[in-house]
Amino acid sequence: MNQPLDVAILGATGAVGQRFIQLLDGHPWFRVREVVASDRSAGQRYGDAARWVLPGNPPDAVAELPVLPLDAALDSPLVFSALPGDIAESVEWRLAQAGHVVCSNASAYRMHEHVPLLLPEINADHARLIEVQRRVYGWGGGLATNSNCTSAPVAMSLAPLRQFGIEAVMAVSMQAISGAGYPGVPALDITENVIPYINGEEPKLETEPRKMLGTLRESTVDLLDCVISATCTRVPVLDGHLVSVSVRFAEAVGEAALREAWASFRGPDPVPDLPSAPDQPVVVRTEPDRPQPRRDRDAGGGMSAVVGRLRPDPVIGGWKYLALAHNTVRGAAGCSILNAELLVACGYL
Amino acid sequence: MNQPLDVAILGATGAVGQRFIQLLDGHPWFRVREVVASDRSAGQRYGDAARWVLPGNPPDAVAELPVLPLDAALDSPLVFSALPGDIAESVEWRLAQAGHVVCSNASAYRMHEHVPLLLPEINADHARLIEVQRRVYGWGGGLATNSNCTSAPVAMSLAPLRQFGIEAVMAVSMQAISGAGYPGVPALDITENVIPYINGEEPKLETEPRKMLGTLRESTVDLLDCVISATCTRVPVLDGHLVSVSVRFAEAVGEAALREAWASFRGPDPVPDLPSAPDQPVVVRTEPDRPQPRRDRDAGGGMSAVVGRLRPDPVIGGWKYLALAHNTVRGAAGCSILNAELLVACGYL
Amino acid sequence: MNQPLDVAILGATGAVGQRFIQLLDGHPWFRVREVVASDRSAGQRYGDAARWVLPGNPPDAVAELPVLPLDAALDSPLVFSALPGDIAESVEWRLAQAGHVVCSNASAYRMHEHVPLLLPEINADHARLIEVQRRVYGWGGGLATNSNCTSAPVAMSLAPLRQFGIEAVMAVSMQAISGAGYPGVPALDITENVIPYINGEEPKLETEPRKMLGTLRESTVDLLDCVISATCTRVPVLDGHLVSVSVRFAEAVGEAALREAWASFRGPDPVPDLPSAPDQPVVVRTEPDRPQPRRDRDAGGGMSAVVGRLRPDPVIGGWKYLALAHNTVRGAAGCSILNAELLVACGYL
Amino acid sequence: MNQPLDVAILGATGAVGQRFIQLLDGHPWFRVREVVASDRSAGQRYGDAARWVLPGNPPDAVAELPVLPLDAALDSPLVFSALPGDIAESVEWRLAQAGHVVCSNASAYRMHEHVPLLLPEINADHARLIEVQRRVYGWGGGLATNSNCTSAPVAMSLAPLRQFGIEAVMAVSMQAISGAGYPGVPALDITENVIPYINGEEPKLETEPRKMLGTLRESTVDLLDCVISATCTRVPVLDGHLVSVSVRFAEAVGEAALREAWASFRGPDPVPDLPSAPDQPVVVRTEPDRPQPRRDRDAGGGMSAVVGRLRPDPVIGGWKYLALAHNTVRGAAGCSILNAELLVACGYL
């Protein structure tokens, strides 16, 4: 690109919005030019409106931007959305209609028949639903979503194993507090504790990976034909969702084949060459006590899933392992940015 | 009892040893008269030798006791053992031979054919193995063990459900740091982190509940005929092991029947009347986000297992729920004391 | 008392309100009969309205009470207030006027000239301001406050040392998250972090101890003539405020005299015989690494201050030490209950 | 430099040793060629011998190095020492004698009359003691130390204020667990707790800053003539020591002058141009609640001290503020590397 593409961030003051801004600082293709947030913040300087919860400070250039209201007309061709689901529903649709390409972290349209639930290494071909949107709705823009933060490590670790026929998956998650946004989880609840419930999370984890791993048919995606059982818990960890996964395959498969499938997994062209793509989408750790959220969440700049502890599971009749991904990078803002890079590479932007 | 029974504590300076001393303070039947620890501590006053890791101080009477070496001849008829497994093996056998009744938290003899793995509400009848020991080995004393701390909530929550035919169990644990003793887990490892591995733990969790829930036949216990798959992790929680359990039954069973089985579970006579028995061995919480380690571990004085979040599990073809127990009370010292109370009530002491 | 006195709790659903209810469960003199909270909760059953943040459950009898609105006429002669400062101002005054004795944890009236800032072991005589209130305002009831949670350990540890002439105090606090109420401090802020600022806290800590340690003169309290410099920080601890205190005395005093003053401190009659008074108001620990919040906050049922690490301070020209008290017990609800007991013993109720 | 200088790390498997290796990865002047550790590790591959406690993995090139024993003859001209104090004493002296330049994080020689306690921005001229060492002891090499990790933020924040005449300093620290090495602090001690004592720490904090801020006279350093009172505590934070500092000056000085002194502080040439020197040695935060360990420890790549909350202190008769520095970067390995860079720039290497 000769010149960086202007970008707007919706929900820019929240925890995921901040992560977008942090990850886009110095991005080779994109430059944050507009920040949008709720009416309470609108009109203020971003540096004053945002209570920055990441280390350090917001980048100077962004700190000086004025916060725009949710109904503002935007100039940026590319829009990242970190809005809450209910607000996202009307705002994102309107912007796609108005000619913007929206890459959204919100849940509103993830399961919509014409909206891709993109994770480029897994399903770059689903991006073609943008064309369907343009045909069906007459949009100049488009709308792509990324998955729930817990679906990311599950789908990424399962993707290289699709070849063995995934039939059933049991997932028990230990999720980080940043997944709940800011202010999010009260310290009085989670300090020295586990909360074995996250509102609305288990249905997402039982559905979204099936779409991500599904097959594009004409104008929609057929879900992968497998059953998922999810239990989601919150643990006192800042970033990084860890999931214990058990999986049954249609065919018999050995440990070496599974490890090899993970280690050699790269995703289709042009994904490995996109700026935010990690060298190794799935990193296999061989120590007995890895992956660990604090020590492995930043693998591949937070864009790799890390797996370990592969062992037979006599109950599901298959294998079990641990999978981890950084929930606000690969599981949110980072994946959305990679999705946008794919859409640029595909010529939709 | 007219007069309290004298009690010795093996491994008295360690974390579980301290919990024995704390729980026996003011016990109606037992009185700590001898404290035994490694040679390093032997000869010192207990109050000086023990780095007390529980809140407050050791009871004054115990603080003044001299620490005895591991090979000391003991006067107390009842001995509680909080020794490491390797040391326990020789010391406990010798003491049982010498006429003491040993109630051990160590793993050395848990799966020994003539040693009961006791949890009174579940398998009080297994105590009859003491008679087998006396007959086979000519002991005046006896040896009873309690389970691994993670097996406790799993076995307790499954016990009331045995009637439905337990076929398969999948368990993913989130275990507290006190389970590793003192000094145990370095803060540099577990702060803001999860360690998805505990050395030697998964095989125990895949075996011990089957013995606890098994059937006494003549001179040994037939394991329950079911398969267990375990994943054990360490989380930044002080006390209380939380386990996500999925279970498949031989017969179809509904939610109401499962809840009723838990709520009405009491254990056989004379267990409910023993001093350390909780009113309700299995407490059912109906809130969506319970049980939580910090808020539920002290239910029933730390002697109740707490269950919640009962839901169908489409993958195992049965039900899933969360179970919790205090790992150093019900999962260690408290259970051992309840076991000793049962042995007294049965006339073995 | 032949029959327990009925008690109302204002702000009953908050964190301190819950602590009142927990501490009053089984109280020999008082019985919770009315619970009052904001309009949002009013009309609901307490068990449904309150998100219980303490371990276990609210007591059954209280869980069944209906939540009353803030403007309700109350039947209980004794009212405990855990209201936020701004709401407390109008509600507490109205209730005192209406004939209730109000014991308040709110800050609104702590420094009011006719309102005692009571901590019975220190200044039981200040309770006579109730008589002043009745004379000046024509009240049938009365209003007594307890201090800010951080002032409690500072004032309690200084009280026995007043005899040596307190001239200057430097205090650096490490405060628990429960001091901020619920939801209070976001986990994203305090996990693995220290926040070196608590809004409004330092001015309180620089003023309130001077009133608590001051002298009753006719119809008001003369502040102790000393200067206090405070720095207040928040640390990832659930309960228990720890304060590093340096103090300069008017006269030379040795270590032994200071220790003896603490150890022998009891407070004036009838305080030591009140139901909530601890045996030892100031507990002196002699280990090098105590007091610690988690291990010492429950000393004296949470009603003792714990001190340790007494050493000369060459900069202030005096002594330095660490002081600790349980912030929601001695520093809030527990102290308020002890205050009420004192008012009963003095015949004001 | 045309070619990187070979470097040896003593105590390479410990927590600070690992930080040396991490920070030297990709260093423009230095390259790790030898790793030395206790006999237990000697002979193993570094990647096998070290339990890596930092995120990710050790650099590949270092992981392949064999661990050398403590008495090995070394080839590297530059040696970094992360040895425990008692072992450091003999090993470091021997290596300096043998012609190596040793930059040590150990405490053994910090207060030795001919050894500089270097923090380049503050006292680069003290490096001339290397010449004294060569003259007095006939060494070809030399020995320079860096301060205790808590002395670093105190000395760095005081250095720009020397001009106002520092007379007295009171410091209360809240120190991170990484300061205790690995395994270091047990999680059972520090979880949800503060430990108000660190063995040997307060005397260091009361002495070392006086040498760092002192004046080079001939062959030794005159300590700064001021008195320091220190209280050191451990808090549940991974990295970053936060210190509440009160200071009295010889002359009256206003807030603006203090802020300006901090903001404009750079250190003498050639320090600002050394590879590890941060742009801003002292970063001034103006928000009311900063500096915070987690959010500010990485300022300047972990090499800046961060100060904030400047307020008058009526007790010391001066000013008070909070200061923070990353304890294993600026307070240990990073400072030692900067010291070595200075020694290279000065021609001692």
Structural overview:
The structure is a homotetramer of 349-residue chains. Chain A is α/β, with parallel strands linked by helices. Chain A has two domains: 5-148 and 333-345, NAD(P)-binding Rossmann-like Domain (Rossmann fold, 3-Layer(aba) Sandwich), CATH 3.40.50; 151-326, 2-Layer Sandwich (Dihydrodipicolinate Reductase, domain 2). Helix content of chain A is 28%, strand content 23%. Chain A has twelve helices and 14 strands. Chain A has helices at residues 15-24, 46-49, 60-63, 85-97, 120-123, 129-137, 151-158, 187-190, 201-212, 255-263, 293-296, 329-345, and strands at 5-10, 30-36, 67-68, 78-81, 101-104, 142-145, 166-175, 215-217, 220-222, 227-234, 241-249, 282-284, 305-313, 318-325. In chain A, the strands form three sheets. In chain A, strands 3-2-1-4-5-6 form a six-stranded parallel β-sheet, with helices on both faces. In chain A, strands 10-7-11-14-13-12 form a six-stranded mixed β-sheet. In chain A, helix 1 (15-24) crosses helix 12 (329-345) and helix 7 runs parallel beside helix 9. The longest helix of chain A is centred in the last third of the chain and has 17 residues, at 329-345. The termini of chain A are close together. The mean pLDDT of chain A is 96. The A-B interface holds A 168-170, 172, 174, 191-197, 199, 227-229, 231, 233, 235-238, 242, 244, 246, 288-295, 308-309, 313-316, 320, 322 and B 168-170, 172, 174, 191-197, 199, 227-229, 231, 233, 235-238, 242, 244, 246, 288-295, 308-309, 313-316, 320, 322.
